[in-house]
Design brief:
alpha+beta; two-stranded parallel ribbon; 9% strand
């Protein structure tokens, strides 16, 4: 669910909270993880945090041209 960020918090704080409150993640990024656009992506940051936390993650790339098997 959508929650507003608390005053004084960062996007990373929000992403950490999303991961900690989730049993699993479903990510729908615009680009493949290795695309230059994904380097500073909040979606990919959340996926990386989820991987570190050992959460199951389902990824669906929106960009049909750059998608590949995950």
């Amino acid at each position: 669910t959508y929650e507003e960020m608390l005053h004084g918090t960062t996007y990373r704080d929000r992403n950490v909270h999303i991961v900690s409150e989730s049993d699993r993640l479903i990510a729908i990024p615009s680009h493949d993880e290795h695309a230059p656009e994904s380097r500073r992506s909040g979606t990919w940051q959340t996926v990386r945090l989820g991987r570190k936390a050992g959460k199951p993650i389902e990824i669906h790339i929106l960009c049909a041209v750059c998608s590949r098997a995950q």
